[in-house]
Amino acid sequence: MTDAAELTRRTAELLAAHPPATTERLDFLRARFDAGLAWVHFPEGLGGLNAPRSLQAVVDAELAAAGAPDNDPRRIGIGLGMAAPTILKYGTDEQKRRFLKPLWVGEEVWCQLFSEPGAGSDLAALGTRAVREGDDWIVNGQKVWTSSAHTARWGILIARTDPDVPKHAGITYFVCDMTDPGVEVRPLRQITGEAEFNEVFLTGVRIPDAHRLGEIGNGWRVAQTTLNNERVAIGGMRLPREGGMIGPAATTWRERPELRTHDLHQRLLRLWVEAEVARLAGERLRQQLVAGQPGPEGAGMKLGFARLNQEISGLEVELRGEEGLLYDEWTMRRPELVDFTGRDAGYRYLRSKGNSIEGGTSEVLLNIVAERVLGLPSEPRTDKDVAWKDLAR
Questions:
Q1: How far apart are CA 173 and CA 72, in angstroms?
Q2: If you count Cβ atoms within 10 Å of the first and of the last residue's Cβ in the chain, which end, N or C, has fewer?
């Protein structure tokens, strides 16, 4: 059994063999992966040591103290938080060896090809088709709200492979090569002026069957692993006290006493307490993950994340008065990551509007919490036993 002392010893060996000050960043990250210190709870040979997930903090602390580089997790968050757990659970040995190392090191960025113009909240109604042709699948369709598609090397894709069965049953899960000539990525400019989201058109994209994850027609079950991990990744991020949105608002309050009012004080206190409760609940959720896969609790965390971000950013804009109406610039950019704390209050206010949409709308997540956490009766569904091709559209 690998314990904290053993991980400390292995980390010291890594640092001795590859001093961060003199080792190229990618070389160090590759060596860390090969040493099993990337994600210690993963299997040996795949960046881990089959160690308890909780011991990752031991490695991270030792490496941070030594000034070792990280893998820029915000830039590759979709790969780390969504693609990797899905590949680990459903991928073949060959797929795990091919994809996990460059994913973790950050050499290959991933995106998520799930939502469609006609299948967002009702994702299982998706219409992108994949038709078998020998050892390949020919894919045609459109995806939307795809973060990082403009920088991604790979995409996790769900497509309909059987229209003659009910909508949840006829879906298959693939890994799509984003450099395929049949993949067209177009920017979606947002209210912030940036285009971090994209729409993706798939025209005759040829995906080898070797890039299928899970069984044919079992894509909905595979996708649930991705979605559960996505909600944990969004809503359960590890933050210090006053991390995230509440930090800039609290800082403004302390540094600008002339802006204070009694009403704003009461609202800030309430939101500060709620942000701290959410932070501690996220820590509890991460501890629960040590024992197994994430469950519907991630939906609750993501719900709270979206509501708090929107309320806190609104308070910050109001607190700043006339200054809160200013915006730094509307230049059209295609950023690699979302930087909430590195921009001004106006950006935080506008960008947070997307928090209740991305990663599952708040309305859908409320249903998940009601049915899967609270055990309330499911909403009536008339399309469960109807073939997808016969559904009204």
A1: 27
A2: N
Q: Is 230 a catalytic residue?
A: yes
Please pick, among 116, 194, 196, 230, the residue that the annotation labels catalytic.
230
Write out the H or E segment, with its range, that includes residue 212.
strand 212-213
Burial 127-151 (b: 16+ CB within 10 A, else e): bbbbeeeeebbbbbbbbbbbbbbbb
Nearest-CA neighbor of 160 among 132, 201, 182, 136?
A: 132
The residue-averaged pLDDT of 139-153 equals 96
Q: Hey, what's the torsion of the CAs at 10, 14, 16, 19, to 10 degrees? A: -150
Give strand pairing partners of 159: 172
CB 129 within 8 A of CB 141: yes
Alpha carbon of residue 370 to chain centroid? 23
Task: Inform me whether the pLDDT recorded for 280 exceeds 70.
Answer: yes
Least confident of 136-140, 179-183, 385-389: 385-389
CA 259/CA 21 separation, integer angstroms: 45
Rounded Cα–Cα distance for residues 266 and 264 (Å): 5
* CB-neighbour burial class of residue 209 (10 A; exposed 0-12, middle 13-18, buried 19+): middle
